From TrEMBL:
Residues 257-282 are annotated as: Disordered. The keyword rRNA processing does not apply. Keywords: Membrane, Transmembrane, Transmembrane helix. This is Amidase domain-containing protein. It comes from the Eukaryota. Residues 174-347 form the Amidase domain. It comes from Oryza glumipatula. InterPro entries: Amidase, Amidase_dom, AS_sf.
Length: 550
């Protein structure tokens, strides 16, 4: 199979009339789980036969043709940082850089529109009420409820949904005594009229890829917490703690972030609160599911390839990955240096445009849509997303521009090589001393593939990153946002044969990551929200109302 020869990026037509060929992912790997995945691992780890199998897998899935052996004219681009562009905007307030975390929270709150409704007035709604941070803050300030009361309801709910009846596996670890202690301190501050910020007393769940005392950081494994001590809070956790947030424990995740389903044979597979028989998505599975189930209004995840936004989409919540470098990676497991960073999951998709006094200031928003890519999803997803664009046009006058984003599949494969190479490099000092039996079967396959990537494949991936950075910057000269579905498929069934072994399902995996790669590979901010689709998100089967009246 001849390697691809790329022409210079500047010669590629990005218009709707482009002759660029769209490659839909044609993953050639069957789903395997249970005994079959074990047999496959044994074959893959054989000295000679394993190398032959890996070569065939990479060849059949076009990694060799499109990445490793390709001829690419651009030089490598190793980081996805962006130059600061200070564009004057109407009615926009810039936060002062030297403010403390509580002061920054206060500035953010002052930008939000005032609410005219009483927090807990009236009867409970029939559809799920996703209480916001401000709802909790107002309830605490008014004395309608205290952080201690909410913490106790949270602990009761976690105990119930973690039991054998539901077995939702939202959390890897949580410490009731520590949570109550934090809530008591917050309650006392409210009683004295001295809350630290609007975040005081707010329950925040933390993905077990982020350091948060007093817990070990396992990365979804059963060994990393012993091998790597957690000595201090991660930077993002320290900021939340300084604002008075109640850190509510460490949420479950796909082992080492090396999967998209949230199936974890060590700590239980996180189930989707909308339907516990389906996957929650990954790798920030527990964070997304905990927010979906009403256990906390916000949670932290880590997004290296859609790992915040994918489970957010499958669970029907909001997932946000900021611009590369916007949040500190200090205290986050260094599983993927150049593509991963902390992200945020929250329960409310309502559109707020803070400080914008007139909709006239947003009338000229242009949305870029690559139709072939956009439409490469299931019919129900495609229909919902099309309705969202129609709604934005009807309400705000936003226009959709037809564009071509070249080499989408090439970018997915280049990202895969990058994240895999960085993962094995960062974990090498642990993996070299580790018994293979301590690693999940599906992750052993992933690590085997990651370790097979050559330096040439990695360097060519960074050349492709350079090309994609050019393509996207050109598109952003005429458009403000690139729009797409978040996933190509909805949450699929959680099958029993995968619970103890994990599963290899690269077809569904490729469909789940189809639209998420640019955000990570190019360091762009990205968010998944529900608008036209909100009516489909009914009350989850597993849902808790922590602000209910006793």
């Amino acid at each position: 199979m001849a390697a691809k020869v790329y022409k210079p990026a500047a010669e590629v037509n990005l218009g709707p009339d482009s002759d660029e060929f769209y490659i839909s992912p044609n993953v050639k790997a069957p789903r395997v789980a249970g005994l079959l995945v074990k047999i496959f691992v044994w074959i893959l780890e054989m000295p000679i036969i394993g190398s032959m199998v890996l070569y065939i897998l990479k060849k059949d899935n076009l990694i060799n043709k499109l990445v490793q052996d390709a001829e690419i004219p651009e030089p490598p681009l190793f980081t996805s940082t962006h130059s600061w562009e200070d564009i004057p905007e109407q009615n926009v307030c810039l936060t002062k850089p030297d403010l403390s975390p509580p002061e920054r929270v206060q500035e953010a709150v002052s930008c939000l529109p005032a609410s005219l409704e009483s927090t807990l007035a009236g009867s409970p709604p029939s559809s799920p009420k996703r209480w916001t941070i401000r709802d909790f803050n107002r309830a605490y300030s008014s004395g309608e409820v205290t952080p201690v009361q909410v913490a106790k309801r949270f602990l009761a709910a976690v105990k119930e949904c973690s039991g054998p009846g539901l077995n939702m596996a939202f959390f890897i670890s949580y410490n009731p005594e520590d949570i109550i202690r934090q809530a008591e301190e917050s309650t006392l501050r409210y009683q004295r009229g001295t809350p630290l910020s609007a975040m005081d007393g707010i329950l925040v769940a933390v993905k077990d890829e982020i350091d948060c005392l007093p817990y070990p950081t396992t990365g979804g494994t059963r060994w990393l917490g012993r091998a790597r001590a957690c000595a201090a809070d991660a930077a993002v956790v320290a900021q939340l703690r300084a604002c008075g947030a109640v850190l509510a424990g460490k949420t479950n995740m796909h082992e080492l972030g090396a999967g998209t389903s949230g199936i974890n044979p060590h700590h239980g597979s996180t189930r989707n609160p909308h339907n516990p028989g389906r996957v929650s998505g990954g790798s920030s599975s527990g964070s997304a599911a905990a927010v979906c189930a009403g256990l906390c209004p916000v949670a932290l995840g880590v997004d290296g390839g859609g790992s915040v936004r994918m489970p957010a989409a499958l669970c029907g919540v909001v997932g946000f990955k900021p611009t590369a470098g916007r949040l500190s990676n200090a205290g986050v497991l260094p599983l993927n240096w150049t593509v991963g960073m902390p992200g945020i999951l929250a329960g409310t998709p309502e559109l707020n445009l803070p400080l914008l006094k007139s909709s006239l200031s947003i009338k000229n928003i242009k949305l870029a849509k690559y139709a072939k890519w956009f439409n490469d999803s299931s019919e129900d997803i495609r229909s919902c997303c099309d309705k969202s664009l129609q709604m934005l046009h009807a309400h705000y006058g936003w226009e959709t521009l037809d564009v071509t984003i070249p080499e989408i599949e090439e970018m997915r494969l280049a990202h895969y090589v990058t994240i895999g190479s960085e993962c094995t490099a960062s974990l090498a000092k642990y993996l070299d001393k580790l018994k293979r039996s301590e690693i999940g079967w599906d992750v052993r396959v992933a690590l085997g593939v990651y370790g097979s990537f050559s330096s040439r494949a990695y360097l060519n991936s960074q050349r492709l990153r350079n090309r994609q950075m050019y393509f996207h910057k050109e598109i952003f000269k005429t458009a403000d946002v690139i729009v797409s579905p978040m996933t190509g498929v909805t949450a699929y069934k959680l099958q029993d044969d995968a619970l103890k072994s994990g599963e290899l399902d690269y077809i569904n995996g490729a469909a789940l990551v189809r639209y998420s790669i640019a955000g990570n590979f190019l360091g762009l901010p990205a968010i998944t929200v529900m608008e036209a689709c909100k009516k489909h998100y009914k009350k989850p089967e597993v849902f808790y109302d922590l602000l209910k009246k006793d």
